[in-house]
DNA sequence: GTCTATATTGTGATAGAC
DNA sequence: GTCTATCACAATATAGAC
């Protein structure tokens, strides 16, 4: 792997585990095996490197979600697929956690990929819920954008519950509760 | 206000906005108006002061939630009251945000109040959902602990959506979606 | 109780040799 | 492209005067 590549990957790991304020250039250098000089040769500084790392993480998350969304099945099945897809629950969401980082949220550059990713997620889910409504799968009084927000929030909040309790079980409980509420009436 | 009091309050504000790793003793001293010497006279260091601050924040959050839970009304109405209670949405949850702080989660001392608060919330909500089930208010197939987790997750995740989009509207959308899913069948 | 001085290590970066 | 100085400032304290 090239040096810029190793720097970006190391930064992604550190941002995921410690956030932006908790990630120092020195830690990035240690984790990537690159020296001081290399890092500042390839990137202008910590914000520049963090931006590259965040963008890549956002792209990966999007590609991964897209796979769930475009699978076969009813709207409910696709939402269930998204909710139950494998996750590193105790590590949290590598994009969502950045919303709690003051230095990420404060500036436009680092915040943009975060905003776009979460907004895109809500939009895709809203589209799926609308398809479910059109198919008569869900109660007609449900509002697609609201249900989409509830689904994304349950996932993001599920990470909080899991980390608070120290167990992925809390995440799973929240997801199962949501699926029970969302389930098409089979009676 | 006494000096220890001002130190604790300043730390609470900073922890809320910047997290534990983002909060320095110097910033606490500036915000509280206390000097270096005072801070280290009243507290052994940053972790000690943070513990006092986190405990107080957790106690306040619990008291505030208790007010919603113990109000009059059906189970659905009490859950709705909790979900719609006034919040500083864009600032996030002062307790939940600490779950993303590596130095808080890593140690038992600082993590304990966070764990206890979130676990307590889930327990109280599960109790209310059970009451709703007993009263025939909810579908019998719902599992109280799961719905409770979904409710808390929707709130915690709602903060993430709001901060990602820069608007409290995203939080409100998630809550309305959940309430629509949870609403007793009126037909 | 509060203040100032001092200390060690880390942060985030620049400069210039190789 | 990478390395080793070097730098100014912040983080997180300790020591001891007042």
From TrEMBL, chains A, B:
InterPro entries the record matches: Homeodomain-like_sf, HTH_TetR, Tet_transcr_reg_TetR-rel_C_sf, TetR_C
Keyword Ribosomal protein (UniProt): no
Statement: the UniProt record of this protein carries the keyword Transcription regulation: yes
DNA-binding region, residue range(s): 24-43
Domain HTH tetR-type, residue spans: 1-61
Gene3D superfamilies: Tetracycline Repressor, domain 2
Keyword terms of this UniProt record: DNA-binding, Transcription, Transcription regulation
Pfam family, any one: TetR_C_13
Protein name: TetR/AcrR family transcriptional regulator
Protein source organism: Streptomyces melanogenes
Source taxonomy: Bacteria, Bacillati, Actinomycetota, Actinomycetes, Kitasatosporales
